[in-house]
Amino acid sequence: MTQIENGWGAGPSLDYEVLAAPFRPVFARIAEEAVAREVDRRLPFTEIGWLKEAGFGAVRLPRESGGSGASLPELFALLIELSAADSNLTQALRAHFGFTEDVVSSRDDEHRRTWSARIAAGDIVGNAWSEIGDAKQQTFSTRVEKNGHGWTLNGAKFYTTGSLFAEWIDVGASAEDDVSVGVIVASNSPGVAVVDDWDGFGQIGTASGTATFTDVVVEAEQIVADNDRFRYGQAFFQLVHLATLAGVGRAAASDLAARVAARTRHYTNGAGPRSSQDPQVLQIVGRVRAAAYASGAIVLKAAEALQRAFDARLAGDEEAERLATNIADIEAAQAQTVVTDLILEATTLVFDALGASATRKDAALDRFWRNARTLSSHNPRIYKHRIIGDFAVNGTPHPDQWRIGRVA
């Protein structure tokens, strides 16, 4: 069935159904074992492989570069659909799609050609940027240093989401004079180790654990200046989280509706003979579904702002890109505050429409809230209303890409 027939609304373009059609059977296969993977804590290596084979990782590349030529709103609509199948996979591929976005918007022709070819061939790129413990805000403890034979990379990272599934890892590091750079290393390089030690209560299938780099040899072309990357990256990465949340909402709504329809046991003090005919239960189902619908619509609207920033970058108009990026950051922040509230409430309400059996571990209905709560904790929403208000009242732009760490 199409999105329209399912009641989720039209896609972001006239061609969206054609674009999505080859991927939907893969999404359906992924969804079949989503609960079993969650209960057994099985990492989705096989499922990532299906997406690679289908060319999903290359969906943003232009057709002439081996991709699908998807616009940014089309990409985010696809990410919502994937997240409805299993939000772990979207989160695991978040760094890859961010890296791909940097590639398609790159002004370096050689860099764009090299990485477009690798992505078109199915390669996945993971991330290794966040540092924990005594890490500082303004510099990375991980360093890339020049030696007589080239460059070597040393350091340790956490929250390295997707890197265990990836052929390449994009590593944030400090170079000479503490200049921030990205270092792109092959995941099978000597000295690279990725461990699945993520112990969070949500998004447990993303392998968001530790990566260490010990005397990893890199070439100069593997080092990319951090300040030359796509400016709208902050809004892009935030919107991936929001698309994932919208997909979580869809999955929760669909699962809830199916369980209410199948439920035969009901309470003596219910408002109908069975759950499927109880107006109060149906009201809960409707609230959950409406929250998911609204969240998806909000995400796709914010994705239009990202598309404007991309178009300005491609046109080479730096002032237009700066202005469009500022607005994209604000729109993503406005979306974050609302979508987060909608989905956290919706994934709690699920249990109000079902009995105590809904809390059984083999149902895994708690995964919706756990995943939503975990996603919502990555970039604290408590600061967003202030930032939005400061923009509205004083015209203050959203702060630049944030970092976390110890203040010097």
From TrEMBL:
- Its recorded name reads Acyl-CoA dehydrogenase
Return one GO MF term.
flavin adenine dinucleotide binding
Q: Which domain of life is it from?
A: Bacteria
Q: Which UniProt keywords apply?
A: Oxidoreductase
Read off the InterPro entries from this record.
Acyl-CoA_dehydrogenase (IPR050741), Acyl-CoA_DH_C (IPR013107), Acyl-CoA_Oxase/DH_mid-dom_sf (IPR046373), AcylCo_DH-like_C (IPR036250), AcylCoA_DH/ox_N (IPR013786), AcylCoA_DH/ox_N_sf (IPR037069), AcylCoA_DH/oxidase_NM_dom_sf (IPR009100)
Q: Family per UniProt?
A: Belongs to the HpaH/HsaA monooxygenase family.
**Which Pfam family is one of those matched by this entry?**
Acyl-CoA_dh_2
Give every Acyl-CoA dehydrogenase/oxidase N-terminal domain span: 29-123
Task: Please name the source species.
Answer: Kaistia soli DSM 19436
All residue ranges annotated as the Acyl-CoA dehydrogenase C-terminal domain in the record: 241-378
Q: What GO terms fall under cellular component here?
A: cytoplasm
